[in-house]
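Researcher: Here's my situation. A collaborator sent me these components and asked whether they could plausibly form a single complex. I don't have experimental data yet, so a predicted model of the whole assembly would be a useful starting point for our discussion.
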Amino acid sequence: MKWMEMEREKEMKGSRFAGHGPFGFMGEDGKKRIRGAAGLCRGYLLEGVLLFPALLVCIPFLILITGSVMGRGELGEYLRPVLNGTGGYISWSLMPDYPTFGNYGRLLLETPQFFVLFWNSMGMVTAILLGQFVIGVPAAWAFAVYEFPLCRWLLTVYIVLMLLPFQVTMLSSYLVLDGMGLMNTPGAVVLPAVFSTFPVFVCYGGFLQIPKEMLDSARMDGAGEWLIFLKFGIPLGKGGILSAMVLGFLEYWNLMEQPLAFLEDKALWPLSLYLPEIGWQQAGYAFAASVITLVPAVFVFLAGQDYLEKGIVYAGMKG
Amino acid sequence: MGKRRAWVFFLMPSFAGVLLFVVCPFADVVKRSFQTAITGEFAGLRNYRMVFGNTAFRTAVKNTFLFTGFCIPLMVAMGLFLALALSNVRHVRFIKSLYLFPMAMPTAAVAVVWKMLFYRQGFLNKYAVRFSLPGRAVDYLGTGAAFFLLAGTYIWKNLGYTVVLWLAGIAGVNGEMMEAAKVDGAGRLERLVYVLLPNLKGSMYTIVVLSFLNSFKIYREAYLVAGAYPHESIYMLQHLFNNWFVNLDLDKMAAAAVVCGAVFLVGILFLQRAWDER
């Protein structure tokens, strides 16, 4: 509840998410106050210190991108110790001598398998997110808006299920999927994910922000419950819904445990399981494939960062 | 559709699915945990005795406890420290994005880079040799260092997530209270210790729970980098379940799922009570 109030408070002030905390030299009116030169310097220094590990965090991205535009010869040179099992250590250059898109070309044009798996991944993620939208969003609405018997108790059940790791429910999922004849079909991965309680929880956080009075006055005007959900719930709870989608995309784009356990046929696998199958001999492929896998995730990340942050906060909120 | 009944229609599809896919089959698993795998005869506590006597299970439980016990306090503390620092600078958004960015890094891509960094002939060894540090020419993933590598990976991947949660918590602390403390002459450190931190207790429970949830997902990286049978120090419950599943040890799996499920349930409910009391 506290988080919700604070969220509202912030919205009123119109300030950016956790922009300037109440602690430190930038108080509530920090922007207006003229700070001394010493304070300014200290600010820059702190920013620099904070920036350094943040940049370190991004080094793996650089390695992948440079590797993906290196030619076979150059990669072979850098990775020779691993390839031949000879002594010495691998080396790297952040500026490829002869940048080329050859890896991408070969991967995209000459490896049909890659295409199949890419679209497998896309298909699964889309199906899961659509399903979660149809199933999870109304459930979140029910928890946020209505009072019904066992409401609190059910919410606790949903929280517990959200927190249970996949491995604990692995056997039970297998039993039911096997019973329904879904093993080794995309449904084995998609269906259980559709009924995941995580998006319910995130959307619930979003719906709690809607003032109850607004819904009551709509009821007074004679609007039915469905109409209220469609006309008020979805547009006003958009933040929560999109947050759930962004978090969901990043989660399901990396699907691993489920397809590994429930899909035997490699032609059904998502991209996330294909990459590790590429050996060192084809390092160029591996880098290009990594970058292509990265692109949708980074795109969603950049487009939805605000929602991502909101979603993280909503998931930690309790009514 | 009246207001009193409407919730049924909204909740039913989800609830039915949860019952069908999780709750009912789990009840079946509980039943199976008392039966033999093939014939389905009543076996009493035999499966449970088998699980507790299993060395792999003990190792996995120990490692999982060690990993969460090591990572979660570290993560919570680092996140708080960073969030406190970040709440003092202007380009929060940009820096925060950088910390959050690893969330977008696909697991499989992480595995590729990690191999380059930590294999016997990887960069870490290269620089260890160049600067003649101890522990040279080791395949880090094949030694006890794997544990710390995995812990580092977990922190690398989830630190941004934790920082966002802490920042939200810090922003939620009443500004007037901080101002009042300031007027009363409390220094920065005093304000931090006596006003800010006590008010962040609620956020901490949340962060612990979510960190725990995310710590279980580190299995993906562990599996892709080191396979189904990694170095003993990072052989976790997740590996064990997966291997039992592959070997169709369903009776052991049932008993272990019940044991773990019960431990999680107690843990979650316990944390939740603490959460409610905030």
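Model: Some features of this prediction you could bring to your collaborator: DSSP finds 17 helices and no strands in chain A. The domain at 109-315 of chain A is CATH 1.10.3720.10 (MetI-like fold).
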